[in-house]
Write a structure and sequence with these properties.
By secondary structure, this protein is of the alpha/beta class. The chain has helices at about 5-15, 30-45, 50-70, 115-125, 140-155, 175-185, 185-195, 200-205, 270-275, 280-285, 290-300, 365-375, 380-390, 410-420, 445-460, 465-480, and strands spanning about 75, 90-95, 125-130, 210-215, 235-240, 310, 320-325, 340-345, 360, 395-400.
């Protein structure tokens, strides 16, 4: 190449931008079509059919683990229930992954999971089932939240066994620095638990030994855990899904953590409905699944949910929490002396019934707006309950939601009643001593949290929103101050 040609080439390369990406090497239309094709492939891979098949496949592993160790299966909700047939599910737990996130480690004062202790004590251990999506070997709920919970419970119930007070966590997931940071917070978590003033004697009656968390994944060699331990109860944290290192498209339709975030793909299908109708769902073509799911959701014979059942809030013997699905006022005469209904439907507020012992609290459509509306409705409790208590020293009270499964707004109402009308032993207060009449004591957040622990222990699936709790706190503390 002569000097003139070389100079021209240098001028071209210095003034002309060369392509740096794949998209720049193809025509715009081709690039758009390629992106659309990839999107279609991903959508097809993450289909409902593939998710249900992946769940079924992973459930076989969970069943295998249960058969080997002969321990009951506990679903960490909401994901865990997808992997356990209803007949094999001993109970539910509510360990949040966010309580195990880096720098956000916490011991939940709202979700104490004390119901799990009963199962562990009765069966000498348990298997907690959960899963996680692509990119992780196990969910933070199992690798960190459960170990934190075990360490706090051990310190709370077995203060004389310092060997059981350390944080036990999977070393392949948690590094030394994170482990040390979490352990440094355990004393603070313990103080939070003590502030709830739980009935420790009752808890120790059923739990004779400390808890020891252990971990199993599909990469584990089974059996590999020393569960026959006279010193501890094993809490086996079982990650249901196989870890996927590449893209889902390379796995032949298998989806890691297929049951996670089901609100985004299930179209309303629940784990209960899935296991009840698994054969029919698995045999239905993908394009027909939305119609079938809709049919299942509207069939009264298939929509009953045991979590909606009415429960007694212990240690009281009078206050019940449920839904109007199971408790239509008037359908069970004489069962309750007072019924309070938190109506979250969009319809016009119903007229107050002629029964003076039934109260409708119309809280709009639920959510944050419903919680804010609740604040203005809580003062209506006094005109209903004060006269009732004067006539009935021990009335049976039902608080029910019309549409939220008795898990949010009705929990807020029940919490207000517990704080105002029950003493520390769960006994009904004399109305002359009630906060509604004469403020006898200050109600602060710690006091309210103790009463909330009664509800979450009696009804573990109860999950009042932050907005609902803020509404109750504002109402109660304003009353406490006499304003």
């Amino acid at each position: 190449m002569d000097e003139k040609s070389l100079s021209a080439m240098q001028t071209f390369t210095s003034t002309t931008a060369l392509p740096t990406t794949t998209d720049a090497l193809v025509f715009p239309n081709a690039s758009h079509n390629f992106s659309k094709t990839l999107s279609s492939l991903k959508q097809a891979t993450l289909s409902i059919t593939n998710r249900l098949r992946s769940i079924e496949q992973d459930s076989l592993f969970v069943k295998h683990v249960s058969d080997i160790y002969q321990l009951p299966l506990i679903a960490n909700e909401r994901c865990g229930s997808w992997y356990i047939p209803q007949e094999d599910k001993e109970g539910s737990a509510y360990f949040k992954s966010t309580d195990g996130h880096q720098g956000q480690w916490s011991f939940s004062k709202r979700r104490l999971n004390l119901q799990v202790l009963d199962i562990i004590g009765n069966h000498h251990g348990c298997i907690v089932v959960d899963s996680t999506r692509r990119g992780k070997s196990m969910p933070d709920a199992l690798s960190k939240t459960v170990p934190i919970w075990c360490a706090v419970i051990n310190r709370l119930l077995f203060p004389g066994l310092p060997a059981a007070h350390s944080l036990n966590a999977p070393l392949e997931v948690i590094g030394p620095s994170e482990h040390a940071q979490i352990e440094a917070r355990l004393d603070s978590f313990l103080n939070d638990a003590k502030a709830l003033q739980l009935d420790l004697q009752s808890l120790r009656t059923n739990l004779q030994k400390p808890l020891l968390p252990l971990w199993i994944t599909q990469d584990s060699v089974l059996p590999a855990l020393p569960i026959n331990n006279d010193d501890n109860y094993p809490v086996i944290c079982c990650t249901a899904s196989r870890r996927v290192h590449g893209a889902e498209a390379s796995e032949g339709g298998y989806i890691q953590g297929a049951g996670d975030d089901s609100e985004g793909w299930s179209q309303g299908l629940t784990p209960i409905l899935f296991w009840q109708h698994k054969a029919k769902l698995m045999a239905t073509p993908e394009e027909e699944l939305p119609t079938l799911i809709k049919q299942l959701l509207t069939d009264p014979a298939t929509t009953s949910n045991p979590e909606n059942a009415t429960v007694l809030i212990l240690p009281t013997q009078l206050l019940h929490l449920g839904t109007t699905i199971d408790n239509v006022p008037g359908s069970k005469p004489n069962k309750y002396d007072c019924t309070i209904i938190c109506d979250t439907t969009k319809s016009k507020p119903p007229a107050q019934p002629s029964d003076p012992h039934t109260l409708h609290l119309h809280c709009g459509t639920g959510g944050k707006l419903g919680s804010r509306s609740l604040r203005t409705h809580l003062p209506l409790l006094a005109p209903l309950l004060a006269p009732l208590l004067s006539q009935h020293p021990t009335p049976k009270i039902l608080v029910a939601c019309s549409s939220t499964g008795g898990q949010d707004l009705s929990v807020g109402v029940a919490l207000a009643i517990l704080c105002l009308y029950f003493d520390d032993d769960g006994m009904m207060l004399n109305p002359a001593l009630s906060m509604m009449m004469i403020p006898p004591r200050a109600i602060d957040k710690v006091y309210i949290r103790r009463r909330l622990s009664w509800i979450t222990t009696s009804k573990p699936e109860a999950n009042p929103s932050r907005s609902t709790l803020q509404a109750v706190n504002a109402f109660l503390m304003r009353r406490s101050e006499g304003n």
